[in-house]
Design goal:
The protein is α+β, with helices and mostly antiparallel strands. It contains three helices and five strands. Helices cover about 35% and strands about 20% of the residues. The strands form two sheets. It has a three-stranded mixed β-sheet. It has a two-stranded antiparallel sheet with strand order 1-3. Helix 1 packs parallel to helix 2 (about 55-70) and helix 2 (about 55-70) runs antiparallel to helix 3 (about 130-140).
């Protein structure tokens, strides 16, 4: 897998991802909220944070995470996207208010075609490939981690 990494403003990329997934979230009557968190004595303004990533791949990762969070949130819920600096690392977290991942499924969450509810009558659609793609992209790149 080839990556075309270049310096990108992280917050602008995140805002673009949120805008691009807004209509999808509206289908589930869910909103997105972006928040930057100050950490210890480091500057809290991350608006100028530059990261060296493949912007297209990061947009795919963000789209997968945001769409999953919207799809599994409760009606009227909010998906919170937080950004924090921890030393030389910037962490982006996507948190929803859905039912959570069943304990017995957590060890398979990044496997291809894995779905917590794989029955023929499941309520949520999807192929089960989104999170495996997210993790695969980041493992191949070697600098970014998805947990």
């Amino acid at each position: 897998m080839e990556f075309n990494s270049s310096p990108v403003n992280l917050m602008q990329l995140l805002k673009q991802a949120l805008d691009g997934n807004h209509a999808y979230a509206e289908q589930y009557q869910v909103g997105f909220e972006l928040e930057s968190e100050p950490v210890s004595d480091l500057p809290s303004d991350l608006s100028g944070a530059i990261v060296n990533v493949d912007a297209n791949r990061m947009m795919q990762v963000f789209a997968n995470l945001l769409s999953n969070a919207a799809k599994f949130s409760h009606i009227g819920g909010k998906v919170l996207v937080t950004v924090e600096r921890i030393g030389r690392v910037i962490r982006v977290a996507v948190k929803d208010n859905g039912p959570g991942i069943p304990d017995e499924f957590k060890d398979r969450i990044f496997q291809k075609f894995a779905q917590a509810d794989s029955s023929d009558i499941r309520k949520k659609g999807g192929t089960g490939l989104g999170l495996s793609h997210c993790q695969g992209d980041h493992r191949a790149d070697g600098r970014q981690n998805l947990v």
